Amino acid sequence: xxxxxxxxxxxxxxxxxxxxxxxxxxxxxxxxxxxxxxxxxxxxxxxxxxxxxxxxxxxxxxxxxxxxxxxxxxxxxxxxxxxxxxxxxxxxxxxxxxxxxxxxxxxxxxxxxxxxxxxxxxxxxxxxxxxxxxxxxxxxxxxxxxxxxxxxxxxxxxxxxxxxxxxxxxxxxxxxxxxxxxxxxxxxxxxxxxxxxxxxxxxxxxxxxxxxxxxxxxxxxxxxxxxxxxxxxxxxxxxxxxxxxxxxxxxxxxxxxxxxxxxxxxxxxxxxxxxxxxxxxxxxxxxxxxxxxxxxxxxxxxxxxxxxxxxxxxxxxxxxxxxxxxxxxxxxxxxxxxxxxxxxx
Length: 345
Ligand SMILES: NC(=O)c1ccc[n+]([C@@H]2O[C@H](COP(=O)([O-])OP(=O)(O)OC[C@H]3O[C@@H](n4cnc5c(N)ncnc54)[C@H](OP(=O)(O)O)[C@@H]3O)[C@@H](O)[C@H]2O)c1
What we know:
Layout: E1 6-12, E2 22-28, E3 36-45, H1 48-52, E4 71-79, E5 91-94, H2 107-110, E6 125-129, E7 133-135, H3 142-145, H4 148-160, E8 170-174, H5 178-189, E9 193-198, H6 201-209, E10 214-217, H7 224-231, E11 237-242, H8 249-255, E12 256-264, H9 279-282, E13 286-289, H10 295-307, E14 314-320, H11 324-332, E15 339-343
Parallel strand pairs: 8-9, 8-11, 9-10, 11-12, 12-13, 14-15
Antiparallel strand pairs: 1-2, 3-4, 3-6, 3-15, 4-5, 5-7
Helix pairs in contact: 4-5, 7-8
The structure holds NADP nicotinamide-adenine-dinucleotide phosphate.
């Protein structure tokens, strides 16, 4: 195939005007450096982070204009002269922080987020350094594989990055968004028990179907942290996947056991939390900020997804590349469950 020259892509021009800063148009296909790989993207997926970047609420580095979205899966169509990891036809997924290869995340690596600092996946073709890609799991479609970059890897890091989850332990997941449903599926595959919270009867049924052992409706049960603790015979849960922030941390502290961990991942309910860090002492627990994960962790996750034939939960409503702004609005309105898929032709 000759090097394609032009393509369709979205850009975020800046912050301050919400989704009006998202613009769709024509662009050049990037030229390849010696270590780069050209990927024909087949699918992308959105994260809450993509919704708050144009709103100026994202706490990590960004540049503007930027091609949005971190999550993408596609096929290698061209490789630079020094590329050794990939060949044409390989199925690949993007690595969120391109510089986070293994071990702890560093400040330098945190400056390499795809869709934030590095141009992202809402386009037909993208070039990445060969170490910025991971092999797509064999058992997943492009739409499924595209969801792994951010939500998938973050929940994997929450379960394995500090103290690896063990069979028989209990994990509490909050809501039915992307991160939480991945955590539910990975925790189940690890032989752990799952307590899930959600907002409605319909979603209660869905998380039960996905295998949650207990489901708590936080709109009906305001003290769900205490209920979760009772479900563990008063001991508390080993790990909380904390995505609610201001709306949930007090309950998470009530739910967590002595020496348990609260993985601080998001702030869907607001970032101004009233609880104090001293409560990690009074509850004898660890609160750990998690920022996605490394290429090494993503490779481990891919192996686990293949071994257990895990399929990410993709919302039934899918969008084309041209309809990406509608996908942003759909996720912002919390109309979705799990991950939203954007098909790229
Ligand atoms: N630190 C990181 O590296 C990292 C990586 C990925 C995501 N995140 C963050 O993690 C959070 C979740 O991301 P996501 O992409 O999974 O989001 P998402 O898919 O947009 O999650 C939305 C769902 O979360 C639930 N929810 C909404 N508000 C809530 C609240 N106040 N309390 C509890 N649950 C609530 C709702 O489900 P129900 O109706 O079922 O309750 C809602 O449908 C975001 O804050 C995101 O920025 C951080």
